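Page 47, continued from p. 46.
Same chain as before, 161 aa.
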Amino acid sequence: MVKLLLKLRWLSVVIALFSAINAIAFIVIGLMRGYAGYRLLVQGMSWTGAEAPAETPGVQLGRSVDAFLMAMVFFVFSVGVTTLFAARAGGHELDSIPEWMRVRDLSHLKFLIWEAILAALVVASVEGLVVPSTAVTWTALILPIAVLILAAGLLLARRAH
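Result:
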């Protein structure tokens, strides 16, 4: 039974591979959004306020950063799963990975992903406040309050851990 479970750990390589593919897809999305933002910046805008808020260079560049942060979430998950389940203990494969990304256990991977998701949510909440689709109401505070709660939860979980 144990041998079967050890053979199944290689399924984690499939999970890590698809997470890496997702990271690459988000990098491509970020590059395209960055290109669109810089193209708008170089073309020049009328700056009259008549253009749609989503079509301003700053918003496009912010969305580019958001896509890059999502790529980092998938990349951290991919490297973490690989080092936890596929790398051999004491092997030299981990020497090329930065120290902060060397995952010791599942709890450490959870905290790394939690931090990466928080960073992406901060950018998303700022984008939600900068580009309102309708009039800004109290519901615009839901995502920033959720980020605050998640950050407080991370702080408390780190202290308890």
